[in-house]
Design a protein that fits this description.
With 279 residues, the protein is of the alpha+beta class. Helix content is 15%, strand content 24%. The structure holds 5-O-phosphono-beta-D-ribofuranose and magnesium ion (2 copies).
């Protein structure tokens, strides 16, 4: 099992809260550790009860490990434990209890669209990496406004929403700025992007995300799907424009040295292997 690292980042994102330091050998819940004194933190933006957030535990006792009304509280990682009414992170201790910036107790489901094309030279021939000798893939990457890190343009699955819809919606919002396009452009963009996303895509990952927002009681999970523009003539032609929670957007060469948000480079590695591309 993966040893989460970003889920133990010393400073909790968007705050001045410091996590209780958890060494590698104390991550697993089965390791007894009476000295463990995690910090409790739930961001004011979550406590304000926006429509995407749960109430605090106490008066509220949702159905964990189940689809609760329209909210999917099942984990891709199997049944998680619930202790004193609170779900426990299946990947172990994080040094922080409560929900931090996450709205849901337990799993917070997201979807990550990995849109790729082959890198080509001026005459349109595929570019091969000098060391691996393999063709180089490029993916659409956004710069997150919250932390400034480059990432896949993913987002949360709305209650009851099909993952296929989330994938297309989040890509359109963050990489094509669909929310702010004039109506005519919006329709044209929607048509083009539906063309690419109507293919099933290749699912490369489904499960826990090592996200810096994770806590002992709330964590990110995702379905990462690759939509590949083989001929370079579908999305490649669409003008990229950052929108919603993205500050910048661009095609980025895929390489193992990329430092990306959360465990995103792990998902890209799967895409590279799948398509026999450079990594
Ligand atoms: C990551 O957070 C997921 O992999 C996904 O990319 C993202 C979803 O959160 P927001 O972009 O909506 O903040 O864990
Ligand atoms: Mg979004
Ligand atoms: Mg997002």
């Amino acid at each position: 099992k993966l040893l989460h690292v970003k889920s133990r980042c010393p400073l909790y994102p968007g705050s001045d809260i410091k996590r209780f330091p958890v060494p590698d050998d104390k991550v697993d819940w089965t390791r007894e550790w009476p000295q463990y004194e995690p910090v409790s933190y739930t961001a004011p933006s979550v406590l304000n009860r926006p429509q995407w957030a749960d109430p605090d535990i106490g008066s509220f006792s949702p159905h964990f490990n189940a689809v609760d009304d329209t909210v999917d509280r099942k984990s891709f990682e199997g049944n998680y434990r619930v202790e004193n009414g609170k779900p426990l992170n299946p990947f172990g201790r994080t040094g922080l209890t409560g929900r931090g910036l996450l709205g849901r107790w337990g799993p917070n489901h997201a979807a990550d669209p990995i849109v790729t094309r082959w890198k080509v030279n001026k005459s349109g021939a595929r570019t091969h990496h000098p060391v691996s000798k393999l063709p180089v893939l490029q993916f659409v990457s956004i710069k997150r406004n919250d932390c400034g890190e480059w990432a896949i343009p993913g987002g949360m699955v709305d209650p009851g929403e099909q993952v296929s819809v989330t994938l297309q919606r989040e890509f359109s919002e963050e990489a094509l700025n669909s929310l702010s396009l004039p109506p005519a452009k919006k329709e044209e963009t929607f048509k083009r992007i539906t063309e690419l996303f109507k293919s099933a895509g290749v699912q490369v990952y489904k499960g826990y995300v090592d996200d810096p927002r994770n806590t002992d009681n709330a964590w990110m999970e995702t379905v990462a799907v690759n939509f590949h523009d083989e001929s370079g003539s579908s999305v490649s032609e669409l003008p990229l424009q950052a929108g919603d929670d993205a500050g910048q957007v661009q095609w980025v060469d895929m390489d193992s040295s990329l430092a990306l948000y959360a465990s995103h480079s792990h998902f890209l590695e799967r895409v590279a292997k799948e398509r026999k591309a450079h990594w």
